[in-house]
């Protein structure tokens, strides 16, 4: 966890320097403007992660008897919204440029008395903006899977969007310099098709978490393996029970529900919780035979897709 915290502080520092540099050489390029807006939005996931980490470590209190572990889920939702909004902004702005057939221009700037094409400065700034996200994103992904931290995983997705934006913006600037006025907007449009997909996936999973849905995989809306693992173990013991699990921050908690819940011993609970380090505070809720089995496939049009 300490390594993840350090990475997020490094992310904030690097992204702040990139935002400042791009602001200096922004010009009238749509691809540059897109890259700049994207980098500003990319500050939200690491900031949300650090804030959530600070609050989630607080002990339970009278006002929050279950603690503040769900701050991590709130941070995940905030990061997912940022990534989704970013994709929408990219798509709207680049499409508008193409529809209006706006012709961007790249002028020159005087440095030490010499006229220098602004495109060279833009390309240099964009190359600089690509390097830290590539490195940071690759460092975060395995760490996010190890910690099962969806906010950190979403931040890694945002880092991928960062360097993709920079690379496409370079292509757009070069295209405009060669006389292809549409290259700038097309470069931004290409980026905008990949980013919303990641954002909507993260938004879908974060919504499920806050709605007390069953735990989901860190990189897909499918059920997490822990659900099937616990179900298989309970069936192996021959118990008529089902695990009702939900995600609380990085951890998974819930109830063992069914007519045989009273037969689950303390040793069995320990065995179940040892199957996954995220499992904590499992409880028992016996029911009568009339309500077993209780859980089936969701049939509502909306929730069946969550």
From TrEMBL:
Output the SUPFAM superfamilies linked to this UniProt entry: Cation efflux protein transmembrane domain-like (SSF161111)
Q: Which membrane topology term applies here?
A: Multi-pass membrane protein
Gene3D superfamilies per the record? Answer: Cation efflux protein transmembrane domain (1.20.1510.10)
Which Gene Ontology cellular component terms are annotated? membrane
Q: Which residues form the Cation efflux protein transmembrane domain?
A: 15-210
Pfam families per the UniProt record, alphabetical = Cation_efflux
Superkingdom of this protein's organism: Bacteria
Transmembrane stretches, start-end: 7-28, 34-52, 73-96, 116-136, 163-183
According to the record, the signal peptide region is none
Any one GO molecular-function label of the UniProt entry: monoatomic cation transmembrane transporter activity
As recorded in UniProt, coiled-coil segments are: none
Ordered alphabetically, the record's keywords are: Membrane, Transmembrane, Transmembrane helix, Transport
Compartments, as annotated in UniProt: Membrane
Q: What name has this protein been given in UniProt?
A: Cation diffusion facilitator family transporter
Q: What is the lineage of its organism?
A: Bacteria, Pseudomonadati, Pseudomonadota, Alphaproteobacteria, Hyphomicrobiales
């Amino acid at each position: 966890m300490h390594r993840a915290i350090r990475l997020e502080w490094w992310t904030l520092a690097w992204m702040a320097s990139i935002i400042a540099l791009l602001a200096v050489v922004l010009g009238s390029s749509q691809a540059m403007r897109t890259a700049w807006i994207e980098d500003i939005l990319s500050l939200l996931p690491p900031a949300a992660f650090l804030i959530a980490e600070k609050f989630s470590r607080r002990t339970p209190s009278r006002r929050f008897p279950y603690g503040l572990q769900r701050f991590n889920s709130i941070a995940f939702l905030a990061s997912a919204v940022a990534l989704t909004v970013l994709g929408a902004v990219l798509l709207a702005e680049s499409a508008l440029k193409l529809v209006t057939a706006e012709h961007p221009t790249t002028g020159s700037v005087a440095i030490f008395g010499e006229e220098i094409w602004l495109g060279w400065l833009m390309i240099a700034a964009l190359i600089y903006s690509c390097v830290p996200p590539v490195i940071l994103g690759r460092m975060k992904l395995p760490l996010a899977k190890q910690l099962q931290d969806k906010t950190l995983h979403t931040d890694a997705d945002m880092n991928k969007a960062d360097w993709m934006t920079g690379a496409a913006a370079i292509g757009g600037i070069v295209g405009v310099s060669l006389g292809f006025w549409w290259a700038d907007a097309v470069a931004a449009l290409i980026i905008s098709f990949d980013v919303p997909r990641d954002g909507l996936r993260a938004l879908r999973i974060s919504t499920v978490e806050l709605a007390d849905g069953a735990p989901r995989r860190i990189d897909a809306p499918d059920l997490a393996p822990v659900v099937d693992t616990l179900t298989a173990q309970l069936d192996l013991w021959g118990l008529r029970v089902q695990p009702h699990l939900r995600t609380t921050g990085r951890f998974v908690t819930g109830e063992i529900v069914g007519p045989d819940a009273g037969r689950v011993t303390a040793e069995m609970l320990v065995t179940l919780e040892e199957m996954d380090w995220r499992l904590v505070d499992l409880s028992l809720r016996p029911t009568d035979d009339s309500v077993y089995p209780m859980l089936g496939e969701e049939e509502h049009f909306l929730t069946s897709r969550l």
